[in-house]
Amino acid sequence: MDGTREMKDSKQLISNIQAQYPRLSKGQKLIAQYILSNYDKVAFMTACKLGETVGVSESTVVRFANALGYSGYPKLQDALQELIKNRLTTVQRVEMANEYSDDTTILNKVLKSDIDNIRGTLEEVDEKAFEEASNKLLNARKIYILGMRSSFTVAQYLGFYLDIILDSVHIIRMDMGDAFEQIVRINENDVVVAISFPRYSKKSFEVVSYAKEKGAHVISLTDSIFAPVASIADNVLLVKSNMASFVDSLVPALSISNALIISVGMKEKEEIKEHFDDLEKIWKMYSVYE
Amino acid sequence: MDGTREMKDSKQLISNIQAQYPRLSKGQKLIAQYILSNYDKVAFMTACKLGETVGVSESTVVRFANALGYSGYPKLQDALQELIKNRLTTVQRVEMANEYSDDTTILNKVLKSDIDNIRGTLEEVDEKAFEEASNKLLNARKIYILGMRSSFTVAQYLGFYLDIILDSVHIIRMDMGDAFEQIVRINENDVVVAISFPRYSKKSFEVVSYAKEKGAHVISLTDSIFAPVASIADNVLLVKSNMASFVDSLVPALSISNALIISVGMKEKEEIKEHFDDLEKIWKMYSVYE
Amino acid sequence: MDGTREMKDSKQLISNIQAQYPRLSKGQKLIAQYILSNYDKVAFMTACKLGETVGVSESTVVRFANALGYSGYPKLQDALQELIKNRLTTVQRVEMANEYSDDTTILNKVLKSDIDNIRGTLEEVDEKAFEEASNKLLNARKIYILGMRSSFTVAQYLGFYLDIILDSVHIIRMDMGDAFEQIVRINENDVVVAISFPRYSKKSFEVVSYAKEKGAHVISLTDSIFAPVASIADNVLLVKSNMASFVDSLVPALSISNALIISVGMKEKEEIKEHFDDLEKIWKMYSVYE
Amino acid sequence: MDGTREMKDSKQLISNIQAQYPRLSKGQKLIAQYILSNYDKVAFMTACKLGETVGVSESTVVRFANALGYSGYPKLQDALQELIKNRLTTVQRVEMANEYSDDTTILNKVLKSDIDNIRGTLEEVDEKAFEEASNKLLNARKIYILGMRSSFTVAQYLGFYLDIILDSVHIIRMDMGDAFEQIVRINENDVVVAISFPRYSKKSFEVVSYAKEKGAHVISLTDSIFAPVASIADNVLLVKSNMASFVDSLVPALSISNALIISVGMKEKEEIKEHFDDLEKIWKMYSVYE
User: How far is CA B168 from the centre of its chain?
Assistant: First the structure.
């Protein structure tokens, strides 16, 4: 599928540039350097303009795109635009949502877009990172789960279920206004799960940075290797969340959370059964459920 | 797809029985009546046992299954088991999760199962109910959003985004221990969105019942027409949440929430833009984001 | 002070009756028995009516009051009314609030009434219970803090500060609708602090009962030895909360919480210093405070 | 009482200096100017050192203290120390707590200190400000209540009870990490109640500043006219919170909250009765209370 293919390109774009770098011509190297530090501008430059800016010919720009494996400069540009999409302001994103019309169309488009998001996530996600993340969770002294704004709901979901399996879960809640106070005892036996989607909260990054500095293992559920939190995470679980609207879909982040919960759960099956055995008795005694 | 087909059957099973009822033989009518009030038992009876219990022959049972459109009694039984699956205890459900093995398999199975869940939801969901729900949200004096246990995370997600668009949103929080206190002023100009998945909370049902009695419009995101809350809802948005594990996937419920948010948002585009314009200024002034 | 004196009477009324019992006349014993199981009715009976009901003379009733140390029947009745005051419905309590008039009077009356409440609490509180409570908190594997409705705010306050000193604090939050899920792993090394004021939440009592059954040590901050939670608590910290209005003052409960925090804190001074040393550095680094 | 008297001095110290300024000698004016911008340093200087620093004689310093109404320089210094006490780091404050010894002493000292705090608050509080605050709450389109860290518990308490009386209450919760998002629609018909105690949260001040800029009426419960939030509040309700320990007592802040609740409640008595009438029925129907 084309959308997915483009996304994979965008994911690999930077490492691709770095890998090809030694083999590039002198002029192409100038382009590479410029892109690595100005990809947000390049995403909206024509080949001609980019050549002008860097001081090379337009055809050098086109050959550079080819050298990276793109059929032409427009495909490279697509990949760059994909990269920066998450940096758009929310207002710009509302403007983009014009494609939606009546409710039935919206219902169909959104659910299909979420199916694509999960499928894209499945293709992209790093299985080794997932496996390591699951094992780290299992063995952590304490698990801190962090998400801000809408990402907090995913943090709560993940925390709710992990808490059934493990006795080490702490969801970082900001309701009293301070996250640092909650992680002040964090150490190298602990794990932080940081759920971070655009627009990336500065506070989130500060908290994870502190945790990292104290030696904690950092698992990050995020949408881009360029997310601030990804740069300091030990395991990055990349999640697609595109929806061309003012809402970032957290659906695939929730689906990955399901997978983490079941993975940890399968390793602690007896614990879960015992837990639910106890709960079923309580629930029955106090008529909690219908 | 087979999984989806079976699900649709299960959905229609009850109405199917009711529709066929006049054309059934006397013996088949006895079976129909018995099933309607004892489907949870019948789901685990052989055709022979069912015949015996009702007082008809085994072949009458088989013909009854055929009359409803099933190729045989086992298919009818499948549909019944689907119906009652959500009534299983959590311990029984953990037992069912044996199919999962290594982490990569889990990752793949869970994400694919969530894709199936959304696809199934898309096939099943009532577009008219969705449209009416969206319009009711838009015009409500006050919107109360209710979810307990893991469903609370979906309530918070939906509430978080609707609150950006509308000035009428109240997420019912039980942190101080009482939901009634929060809805005591509810009236016929209000809307309740009840997110309810197995095991169905008794408290949730009590709260929605009270709201209904006070004349509020009830929108329900749930997994079954047999969910207690579905019986009193004005709009039922049916969501698949199967995962053959101790976790119910709330992924499709979140996807439907995305659709509701965008649907309401598209009708209040100017309000959103203004809202985000203001927020962007604040965020910039106080460096909230990276 | 008279108010305080009456309160002490009310506290000791029941044990007083039990202590005097052997020395009472036959007729007085009948009164004692009747009061012990019907004090809520007796509180509003005249001496004459009580005598009639029990089958003794009015003068026997008066002598009974004298035998308990009251100057007359009205004083006994006061003590009984004090006892049942917390059982009044909230509507009845709003009716009682007529004494308040202009804002300045309210301000003065309320703050003075809170001073009286703390003073009364100080006279009444069991110092041994306080000391044991403090030591149990210090040594608990896990501390669960429970309060519903307005009492939740005291639970949060106590939990916020104890969490600075100890790594074992869990505030029971009902925001996802279930308290049992949070205490399912409770055991005999754990402590529950139950903050419970009228009207006594049934849920609170169920949760504490479960904890008690599992062997946990129960500390209760409550207003009466007749509070359901007091009957199963290991340490009862009695707190005055009268305010003759629809609000129960939690001021003395907060003051007792201050005392508990400082008592535990003084035993872990090095831990607190280290904690704040770390926090001060973080706060400075991230400009959290002015 | 001496403690209270000193506190009043400290409150009036700055305005006192300003009022006396025209009548001061030239040398005394130099002292006044120096103190106004360096009171934190002066608080720990001897009269001799202060004279030296400013370039006047020690006896000029003493006469300056007399001119302000103090019996000597040490009393002026006390008042200055009172002022800066809230600026101490938490670590310094733990060091100060050495006076506490055994549990019974702690219990007595803390409760007595809270009685003094409320009494001091009662002497200090501005009755006109209280009255205006109460009326503003009564008539607000929307009431936003803000408190961070431990002050959040007072915010929740005040919000919980005001919500029983009024349909306009919104407690600002940071659990999803952003306060601005919650006040983005604030306007000149709204009221913010800001509860702010040392160490004063920067975020709190930013949020209140934004509200003020949008024309909202600001009521502040704080401990000092030097609290950042006091400088922009329309009504400052000054509260004593000294406890010479690492905990700031919020007891008097809670007592003032009680007074506000009852004041607003007395003006909406019918509303409360109706509210509780409804709730009592629900509570009975669903057996919420014992």
Answer: 24
Q: What percent of chain A has pLDDT over 70?
A: 88
Please name the residue of chain A whose CA is at the shortest distance from the CA of residue C211. A282
Q: How far apart are the first and last CA of chain B?
A: 45
pLDDT at B7: 38
Q: Which residues of D touch B275 (CB under 8 A)?
A: 184-185
Closest chain A CA to residue D203: A177
* Separation of alpha carbons A266 and D88, rounded Å: 51
The architecture (CATH level 2) of C120-283 comes to: 3-Layer(aba) Sandwich (3.40)
* pTM of the complete model beyond 0.90: no
Give the distance from residue A279's alpha carbon to the nearest chain C alpha carbon, in angstroms: 7
Q: Given a cut of 60, is residue A87 above it in pLDDT?
A: no
Taking an 8 Å cut-off on Cβ atoms, the answer to whether B176 and C174 are in contact is yes
Residues 189-228 of C with CB under 8 A from A: 206, 210
Residues of B in contact with D278 (CB under 8 A): 184
Q: List chains touching D (3+ CB pairs under 8 A).
A: A, B, C
Chains that touch C (3 or more CB pairs under 8 A): A, B, D
Rounded Cα–Cα distance for residues B283 and C161 (Å): 31
What's the angle, vertex CA C99, arms to CA C98 and CA C104, rounded to 5? 120
What pLDDT does D69 receive? 87
Is A246 in contact with B265 (Cβ distance < 8 A)? yes
* Burial (0-12, 13-18, 19+ Cβ within 10 Å), D66: middle
| Contact between D176 and B156 using a beta-carbon 8 Å cutoff | yes
Spell out the domain ranges in chain A: 2-85, 120-282
* B33 to B42, B43, B230, C41: CA distances (angstroms): 12, 14, 22, 54
C184 → closest Cβ in A156, A210, A278:
A278
- Asked whether the predicted pLDDT for residue B268 surpasses 80, the reply is yes
- Residue D5 pLDDT greater than 50, yes or no: no
Taking residues C241-263, what's their average pLDDT? 86
Q: How far apart are CA D46 and CA D220, in angstroms?
A: 35
Which residues in chain D touch residue C134, judged by CB atoms under 8 angstroms apart?
103
**Residue C230 DSSP one-character state:** G
What's the CATH superfamily of A120-282?
Glucose-6-phosphate isomerase like protein; domain 1 (3.40.50.10490)
**Intrachain domains D2-85 and D120-283 with the same fold:** no
Distance (Å, whole) CA A188 – CA C279:
18
Top-level CATH class of C2-85?
A: mainly alpha
Q: Order of strands, edge to edge, in the sheet holding B217-222?
A: B169-171, B143-147, B191-196, B217-222, B235-238
**Which residues of chain A are within 8 Å of residue D204 when distances are taken between CB atoms?**
177
Residue A96 reports pLDDT greater than 60: no
When CB atoms are compared, the residue of D167, D279, D286 closest to B206 is: D286
Q: What is the pLDDT of residue C269?
A: 83
Q: What interhelical angle do D73-85 and D58-67 show, nearest 10?
A: 70
pLDDT of B82: 76
Asked if the Cβ–Cβ distance from C262 to D247 is below 8 Å, we say yes
Is pLDDT above 90 for B12? no
Average pLDDT over chain C, rounded to an integer: 85
Beta bridge partners of B218: B192
**Would you call A40 an interface residue with chain C, using a CB distance cutoff of 8 Å?**
no
Residue A97 in contact with partner chain B when CB distance is under 8 A: yes
Q: What is the pLDDT of residues A59-76, one digit of tens each?
A: 999 999 999 889 999 888
Give the pLDDT confidence of D84-94 residue by residue, as tens digits.
665 555 666 66
Instruction: For residue range C29-42, list pLDDT tens digits in order.
Output: 889 888 876 776 78
Residue type, C25: S
Q: Cβ contact (<8 Å) for B283 and D180?
A: yes
How far apart CA C228 and CA C209 sit, in angstroms, is 10
